[in-house]
Design a protein that fits this description.
This is Probable phosphoketolase. Its cofactor is thiamine diphosphate. Belongs to the XFP family. By secondary structure, the chain is α/β, with parallel strands linked by helices. The chain folds into 3 domains: about 350 residues, Rossmann fold (3-Layer(aba) Sandwich); about 210 residues, Thiamin diphosphate (ThDP)-binding fold, Pyr/PP domains (Rossmann fold); about 180 residues, Rossmann fold (3-Layer(aba) Sandwich), CATH 3.40.50.920. The protein has 26 helices and 23 strands. The chain has a 6-stranded parallel beta sheet with strand order 1-5-6-4-3-2, with helices on both faces. A 6-stranded parallel beta sheet has the order 13-10-14-15-17-16, sandwiched between helices. Helix 1 crosses helix 3, helix 1 crosses helix 9 and helix 23 runs antiparallel to helix 25. The relative contact order is 0.09.
């Protein structure tokens, strides 16, 4: 049987060893460029001139606010007061860009560019400006001297753009320096994009992060028959902010063995001489694209079995701050950590440094690159692709223009039938899995589900009836027995939340749709990724009008805190939603549906939305069902509402409000209401359930928030409110702090108390049980304090008794475990 990651069956012959290429010791899989090169002298001259223009613009962006073309000697007043850009990675980024442009023009390629190195914006903004895209999007940054001056001044300048590849940058879907997410984003862009090549430049500092390390394995999930390709380009420039990088300081053999071990076919382009490097890079890129196309051609033949090839990658070893000053005042600059940010910063007021800057900028010979009006000369303009083939204008990088609405089935077809509320048990997420199955069926080229080895665990396994798990690695006979693996699968599973969410974000930002699920406690793994995506959406949605809306990022948190009693303390953490409330209200939504039908309604709503991050908290275990599908639709439309059946204040002023948010929190609150209905029949109790968490916030702060009158209509203006919450109690106080009656708001939530418990024991330990709620209501309602003393004592005894029973029998009492809502 052929090696699934071999080369001959992939369509491009046996590779030459390093020794056969005359490049030193032979290491299995080693590929280096050979002597000569495919470029004519004129091509080298023109490409290098274009690259010089890119580098000139990079330096100008960092340093200058005036005199953009050096038509006169530099003066202090030409220099920005605050020099905030990063020079070190920029030359390599634009070098790669120039070489990709050549192949795009020659072969009519559809290429997206992902810039991984942090603060690498100058290396991307320069090409975007030279291609004309930047001026098209921002007409005041015209392609002349006046526009160039504004282009320079805006960079890292108050009120304008930052030094990362931010959403304002045409051609970008990824903000460089996002803590290692470039490669997972790149692969997400390639899924279901068969004609696209995603060129992803990975910084060697970025390569030291955990998310980047796991993302290398994404090559095991690319199906060359239906997906595009990713060409990773690792830029080894040797340094981070002030330290060497690991991958730049290991031996070439060890480095190569690493990437061969990852399943790639690495090529090495190394050096600093521009002419030699242009020839090496041109040859290497040609070969890489040729091999990508050969793999795809073979895989797309109807009678060919799809196997996993060795995809090519490039290691570009170039100096930090390439083409910059070699040294200054006895200190090495090019090839040193000193070039990471601004090679020398004290230019204003320092004549020698001002002169050094001018000498550096004039070394690019701008007078040869730009005409008298400041426009790039025609010979160089001709090198760039045209229209949508420009990487800075590629529509995939503004994915909203390609997005098509999902074909969604009617949620009523999946509804749980609720004959008697509070008596039917059902796994809340199971109908959701059936719904997602048919969403997948209706959208087989633009919808995927992502989750870390937990699709069946989270009861979403109905999806496998339509599409199994993507798997391009080796398959064993045992996998046929329930393994649910397929070369053509559309369910993405890998035990790395970082890589999965990166895939999803790349998929969404290029115009497709998806759904992500994970265990609630482990969602914190993706805290920083959520942060960055929320910031990207905020800027795109509210400040970059030319970006079209993309499908929302939908996150299901299941296996929740209150049903992790068996896994223990480490699995009990409902705090991810606290993080979500810190981000912009314009892009964040949080839902805690109490049963299966409300979960269906919420999921349907989320899949229809755009430019949001929707977080849904719903457990997978069997729970009591409270709403019919029509009631669920109405309840979710309101976001929060009074449940009349559980209330005793009809046409009366309530004595107390019992509120709840979350599935188990709702069940315990209903049980408390039942106890009070029986034992304190004169109590006027209002029962409120919250599905949309942001309903508790002021309408002035969140689009889903409530007015003061709306909050008073639910919670009253002056009565005590006992609130049973799924998460940490402080979050409710944070959201409702502007509510005039917030002083009477008393929240029960998770208190970081747990271990290997029974479900009800966990509720008791954290004081969210029905007994604790009854006690709190007795304490807060003056009329009950004296009259309900015996009931309060019963509740205290019940707490002690249930704890003792759990510790003796290892389970909850049947009257607790089998409780139904009798009212």
């Amino acid at each position: 049987m052929a090696d699934p990651v071999g080369t001959e069956e992939a369509g491009y012959g046996k590779p030459l060893s390093a020794r056969e290429q005359g490049q030193g010791p032979s290491v299995p899989g080693r590929e280096r460029t050979r002597g000569g090169g495919p470029l004519t002298s004129r091509e080298v001259e023109l490409m290098n001139a274009y690259w010089r223009a890119c580098n000139y613009l990079s330096v100008g962006m960092i340093y200058l606010k005036d005199n953009p073309l050096l038509r006169r000697p530099l003066k202090d007043e030409d220099i920005k007061h605050r020099l905030l850009g990063h020079w070190g990675a920029s030359p390599a980024l634009s070098f790669v860009w120039v070489h990709l442009n050549r192949l795009i023009v020659e072969q009519d390629l559809d290429v997206i560019f992902v810039a991984g190195p942090g603060h690498g914006a100058p290396g991307v903004l320069g090409p975007a400006y030279l291609e004309g895209t930047y001026s098209e999007v921002y007409p005041d940054k015209s392609m002349d001297a006046e526009g160039m001056q504004k282009f320079f001044k805006q960079f890292s300048f108050p009120g304008h753009i930052g030094s990362h590849v931010t959403p304002e940058t045409p051609g970008s879907i990824h903000e460089g320096g996002e803590l290692g997410y470039s490669l997972s984003h790149a692969y997400g862009m390639a899924f279901d994009n068969p004609d696209v090549i995603v060129a992803c430049v990975v910084g060697d500092g970025e390569a030291e992060t955990g998310p980047l390390a796991t993302a290398w394995h994404s090559n095991k999930f690319i199906n060359p028959r239906r997906d595009g390709a990713v060409l990773p380009i690792l830029n080894l420039n040797g340094y981070k902010i002030a330290n060497p990088t690991i991958l730049a300081r290991i031996s070439p053999e060890e480095l190569e063995a690493l990437f061969v071990g990852y399943g790639y076919k690495p090529y090495f382009v190394e050096g600093s001489d521009p002419e030699e490097m242009h020839q090496k890079m041109a040859e290497t890129m040609e070969r890489a694209v040729e091999e990508i196309r050969a793999v795809q051609k073979q895989a797309r033949q109807a009678d060919t079995e799809v196997t996993r090839p060795r995809w090519p990658m490039i290691v570009l070893r170039s100096p930090k701050g390439w083409t910059g000053p070699k040294e200054l005042e006895g200190h090495t600059l090019e090839g040193s950590w000193r070039s990471h940010q601004v090679p020398f910063g004290d230019v204003r007021g320092n004549p020698s440094h001002l002169k050094a800057l001018e000498t550096w900028m004039r070394s690019y010979r701008p007078e040869e690159l730009f005409d008298e009006n400041g426009r790039l000369i025609p010979e160089l303009r001709a090198l760039a692709p045209k229209g949508r083939r420009r990487m800075s204008a590629n529509p995939h990088a503004n994915g909203g223009v390609l997005r098509k609405d999902l074909k969604l089935p009617d949620i009523r077809e999946y509804a749980v039938k609720v004959v008697e509320r509070g008596t039917t048990l059902h796994e809340n997420t199971k109908p959701l899995g059936e719904f997602l199955r048919d969403v997948m069926r209706n959208n087989m080229t633009n919808f995927r589900v992502f989750g870390p080895d937990e699709t069946a665990s989270n009861r979403l396994q109905a999806i496998y009836q339509v599409s199994k798990k993507t798997w391009m690695a080796e398959m064993l006979p045992v996998d046929a027995d329930g393994g649910e693996l397929s070369r053509d699968g559309r369910v993405m599973e890998m035990l790395s939340e970082h890589t999965l969410l990166g895939w999803l974000e790349g998929y969404l930002l290029t115009g497709r749709h998806g759904f992500f699920h994970t265990y609630e406690a482990f969602a914190h793994v993706i805290d920083s990724m959520f942060n960055q995506h929320a910031k990207w959406l905020d800027i795109s949605k509210n400040h970059v009008k030319w970006r079209a809306p993309v499908a929302s990022e939908n996150i299901l948190l299941s296996s929740t805190v209150w049903r992790q009693d068996h896994n223990g303390f480490s699995h009990q953490d409902p705090g991810f939603i606290d993080l979500v409330t810190n981000k912009s209200a314009s892009v964040t939504r949080i839902y805690l549906p109490p049963d299966a039908n409300t979960l269906l309604v919420v999921a349907d709503q989320c899949l229809r939305s755009t430019d949001l991050i929707n977080v849904i908290v719903a457990d997978k275990q069997k729970h009591l069902q409270f709403t019919s599908i029509d009631e669920a639709i109405a309840h979710c439309a309101k976001g929060a509402g009074i449940w009349t059946r559980a209330s005793t204040d009809l046409d009366a002023d309530p004595d107390v409000v019992l509120a709840c948010c979350g599935d188990i929190a709702t069940q315990e609150a209903l049980a408390a209401a039942s106890i009070l209905r029986e034992r304190a029949p004169n109590l006027k109790l209002r029962f409120v359930n919250v599905v949309d968490l942001f309903k508790l916030q002021s309408a002035e702060e969140h689009p889903h928030g409530s007015t003061e009158r709306e909050l008073e209509g639910l919670f009253t203006a002056d009565k005590p409110i006992i609130f049973n919450f799924h998460g940490y109690a402080s979050l409710i106080h944070k959201l409702a702090y502007r509510f005039k009656n917030q002083e009477n708001l008393h929240v029960h939530g998770y208190q970081e108390k747990g271990n290997i418990n029974t479900p009800f024991e966990l509720a008791i330990l954290n004081e969210t049980s029905r007994f604790h709620l009854v006690i709190d209501i007795i304490d807060r309602v003056p009329a009950l304090r004296a009259k309900a003393g015996h009931l309060k004592e019963e509740m205290r005894n019940a707490i002690i008794g249930n704890l003792a029973y759990a510790h003796e029998h290892g389970r909850d009492r049947p009257e607790i475990a089998d409780w139904t809502w009798p009212d």
